[in-house]
Amino acid sequence: MSNPLIEVRNLGIAFGRGAAAVPVVRGVSFALGREKLGIVGESGAGKSTVGRALMRLLPPAARVTADRMAFRDTDLLAASERQMMELRGRRMGLILQDPKYSLNPVVPVGEQIAEAWRLHHKGPAREARERTLAILEAVKIRDPARVARLYPHEISGGMGQRVMIAMMLIAGPDVVIADEPTSALDVTVRLEVLHLLDELIESRGLGLILISHDLNLVRRFCDRVVIMYAGRVMEILPAADLERAEHPYTRGLLASLPSIHRAQDRLPVLRRDPAWLAGAGGTP
Amino acid sequence: MTATFSAPQGGLRAWLKTDAPRTVFQSAMQQLYRGWRRFATHPLGLAGLAVILLLVIAAVAAPWLTAYDPIAQDMVNRLQPPSAAHWFGTDEFGRDVFARVVYGARTTIYIILLVTIIVAPIGLLIGACAGYLGGWVDEVLMRVTDIFLSFPGLVLALGFAAALGPGITNAIIAIALTAWPPMARLARAEALSLRKADFIAAVRLQGASKTRIITRHILPMCLPSLVVRLTLNMAGIILTAAGLGFLGLGAQPPLPEWGAMVSTGREFMIDCPWVITAPGIAIAVVSLAFNLAGDALRDVLDPRSGE
Amino acid sequence: MTTVDTFNRPARFLRMRRLSGRTLSVVVTLVGLMLLTFSMGRLLPADPVLAVTGSEVDKATYDRVYQELGLDQPVWQQFLSYVGRVATGDMGRSLTTGQPVSADLLSVFPATIELALVAILCGTLVGVPLGVAAAVNRGRPIDHVARVIGLAGHSVPIFWLGLIALILFYAKLQWVAASGRIDILNEGMVPPITGLLLLDTALQGEWDVFRDALGHIILPGAILGYYSVAYISRMTRSFMLEQLGQEYIVSARAKGVSRRRMIWAHAFKNIRVQLLTVLALTFGGLLDGAVLIETVFGWPGLGQYLTRGLKMNDMNVVMGAVLLIGITFLVINIISDRLYRILDPRTR
After folding, report:
1. Is there a domain that residue B32 lies in?
2. Numbered residues of chain A with Cβ closer than 8 Å to any chain C Cβ
3. Is residue B62 within 8 Å of B255, Cβ to Cβ?
4. C143 touches chain A (CB under 8 A)
5. What single string gives the DSSP state of each residue in chain A?
6. Is C52 an 8 Å CB contact of chain A?
7. What residues 153-212 of chain B have any CB closer than 8 A to a CB of chain C?
8. Does residue B84 fall inside a structural domain?
9. C137 to chain A nearest CA, in Å?
């Protein structure tokens, strides 16, 4: 890929120090362009950790190593905290899972969105306010002026997630990392929010990393898919090619999805091969 | 390491560590042993426990620890600074301060024991009944508890101590009256959560009466957190007792009581600061010991409520 | 849009019902308080008749005073008349001062309030930043220092610390003044407006007297405040730790919020209301320590009034002072509860 937005080579993340260090992510490599990249895996596969590592938002106990971890020309590993603060929100955004917890409970949502703008742009409060209302409209919230005054506990889950998206997009980033963005939402609302995300990503030409445990969701929504297991990448392939996946883990995942089209007695149980833990797989 | 120990030791250890205890007693002892091992990993808690043991030793072995009589006056030697003969100096009546501090430990132990004996059962019972029985019993009992909690601790103790008259036992009763509400609150909280437990429902289905449920099942479960809270609150109780002593309630002269010693030494404190230094430090050290031991105990018995 | 309950009653009705429930609860607690103080008063070993008449008295006078004091009535009737009297502000007369107790209380109460306010100020100024620092730097040296300070606050007897402080700062260093609120020379120089000397002198521009008052209040206030540092810093630390582990902190940082802003504008903002409750509780707890500190420093407040009444077996004084402290405590708790409701957007 030429000019990737994000490039990751041989990423390793461990918690703890020295002999007691627990490796959580090993040998992960991938690249992101202006596309929708999905990272799929079971709980504990390390997907969220990778997402947060890119923004350097892991707790201090985490040790991040990589041959390369870069956003455009900026080396994310070597960047200072000040540089990272400038990147966060302005160039890279992170959408979290549950708006009930990921929004500040004692601040009205409009103010939280405006803060994302004002952290990176000097200007009068009026401008921030106008931009907030504009982005709220862009995420399809009716009556944005009223909603902006509400507190997070006064809005529904779907609305909250739209607010979250608005908050992370207002400063105009190039890359958005969405960590399980619809897992906390009702099924009926999920599609709407995903649709919205799709529109915004396409219209602004952003790169999206969608982290999820839902393979079906990812295969339908994303352009390419990264399959992770136990902190390692098993396979990377275009979403359209998933049926033709080669790695046994991917095949196992696909086989364990119930299908309305196939006749099945029993869902096959995924057999885990310890050989998958040795060596990194996948082509960027 | 077991190889270097003789057989009986190895036997006790094995008995304590086996996975399949054969009697309830053995199981209880095993829990005690495990709890002790956990406790022993807290150096500060051990230090606190050591100080408490020291307190007990001082109280019991007082006559052997000091040759002086804490009550006998010796006006010739009054207000002597610390020296080889009088480690902590002498007070305004010529009494050896060290001896008075050591004998004062007896008063402190008396306070601790008596308060525990009064407060623990009352608090437990009231709290457990309120929590388990619910309804108007709960309302009434909690209302009473709240009223007692409406006064700051020392003030309430002051009021009662004054009402009952001077004397150490009256002071202890007064303190006990202020110390039981937190215990009752705690027991009630535990009982409330236990009320919905399956094993309680099972025992009820077997026909157990309310009394039996409360005494045999609920009360024992409330004990661990109660022990922790009581140990932690003991520091405050000792401070309250010292405060009462300072104000002239509590142990009456010439009995040695650390708070009273600070009060009487006050007159001379500018020129003879040693008279009030030693008893004050004694109070602080013992209080601290209970705080530390209580913290460690909380980690062992009730890890959920820790930080 | 008004909220309704299942029977479709409007919100205003519900609010009033809640309010009356709370008022009832407060009234019951008040009555309970008075029951406690009443029983304290009745238990006092001194004979109340002799206290009024003196020990040399003939039977006729004794009987007359006995009747006057209402001691021949059944206990419950005595209690009711006690409640009635207190409700109208009559708490009897003090034996030692000869004044009505309520008048005495009115004159000494501001002194204690001032002391407690200074103490809370000191305690908050030290305790809150300490707690925040301990939470943000969990496990590191400052955390341990905060813990030690907290432990010391729970272990060292306050009256002893006050005495040691007096020896050090007054006798040896001569930095502060001795007992009382101001020098005898300055007494009565400034007409009282609020009863709080610092405020009164500042409002009227009497800076000399202000400095004098400050020199007198700073040591007892600081020592009393030190005791609240333990509790305040521990609760602040605990609240902050809870907030710092929340997801919204991550999303704030993901926006590009700096560490300092994250701590104060985000995490701290969420604990402000809880801290207020802590401060209110601390204020009540200070009343405890104030009794001892006032005795040590000769501070002419409620605490000293109480302990002097105790020594003289002055029943009315003891009952009145204890009741006032209890009522203050109750009022503080009620206020803090209401404040919590008003300030936390989640409970509106």
Report:
1. no
2. 52, 55, 57, 81, 85-90, 93-94, 96-98, 101-107, 115-116, 119-120, 151, 153, 164, 167-168, 171
3. no
4. no
5. --S-SEEEEEEEEEESSGGG-EEEEEEEEEEE-SSEEEEE--TTSSHHHHHHHHTT-S-TTEEEE-SEEEETTEETTT--HHHHHHHBTTTEEEE-S-HHHHS-TTS-HHHHHHHHHHTT----HHHHHHHHHHHHHHTT-SSHHHHHTS-GGGS-HHHHHHHHHHHHHTT--SEEEEESTTTTS-HHHHHHHHHHHHHHHHHHT-EEEEEES-HHHHHHH-SEEEEEETTEEEEEEEGGGGGG--SHHHHHHHHTS--SSS--SSPPPPPPPGGGGSS-----
6. no
7. 153-156, 158-160, 162-165
8. yes
9. 11
- B266: domain CATH number is 1.10.3720.10
The answer to whether position B20 is within a domain reads no
User: Searching chain B, which residue's CA lies closest to the CA of residue C304?
Assistant: B247
Q: CB–CB of B156 and C35 under 8 A? A: no
pTM of this structure = 0.81
pLDDT in tens, A62-82: 999 999 999 998 999 999 999
Indicate contact of C with B: 3+ CB pairs under 8 A: yes
What is this model's ipTM? 0.88
Q: Which of B52, B108, B150 to mutate to test the interface with C (most CBs of C within 10 A)?
A: B150
Q: What is the per-residue pLDDT across B255-275, written as a single tens digit (0 to 9) for each?
A: 899 999 999 888 888 888 888
C251 close to C235: Cβ distance less than 8 angstroms: no
Q: What domain count does chain B have?
A: 1
Interface of B with C in 28-87 (CB under 8 A): none
Range(s) of the domain holding residue B284: 42-301
Percent of chain B surpassing pLDDT 90: 31
How close A108 gets to chain C, by Cα (Å)? 10
Q: B151 in a domain, yes or no?
A: yes
Tell me the pLDDT tens digit for each residue of C266-293: 999 999 888 988 888 888 888 888 999 9
